[in-house]
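Take a look at the protein record below and tell me what you see:
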Amino acid sequence: MGAAVLLKQFESILGAPLDWQSRPEPERAPTGIAELDSATGGLPRGALTEIVGPASSGRTSLLLSLLATATARQEACALVDAEDAFSPHSAADAGVQLARLLWVRCGHSAEQALRAADLLIQGGGFGLVILDLGDTPPAIARRISLTSWFRLRRAVEHTPTVLLSLARQSNAKTCATLQLECARERTLWSGTPHSSRLLRAIAARATSTDRSKTCSPVFTAKAL
């Protein structure tokens, strides 16, 4: 019996068409940035999200906003820091409640960071798990196999955890449900060109690619 015939029989019995490919819309966690929440609905739980962009593109400011928002709603968070780049003082200034954050330092090892993220997801109990490869050289980050990313995606499925990867370039590819690409638009200074000038902010743009919604909204924000 062919698959098409079998499908018609099931639909006849149930009295409604069947969609074998449909999946429930994942719950979304707010980011703390109104423009981004309006465009994407927030970060999907039980899925992998990538934030990619070069240095000074706004990715770190976006990361701190996510941590501040998650800890403010009293969620336990974990930051797997591959290159010891995290600054607790900057995070506290951005509103992150450090008492709700587990900081895992991996001694400049992307492989150790990947294993640590896997263990944290398997252990459960975290609303947000971040794998920070932002300062890892792209050539090293690309050595992480797609199989490893697929294993992380499968581990976080059916959990309330937001899994977030931060890197200069996309590494998870199709394993990521949502991708946010950050890019610097302009630098904002105070003072005049002939006097002392102080950096006030960086205007950054983030473009999202949501595989569950097939859309690409854009927002612009100022990052310190």
In short: Residues 31-189+197-217 form a domain with the Rossmann fold fold (CATH 3.40.50.300). Residues 214-224 have pLDDT under 50 and may be disordered.
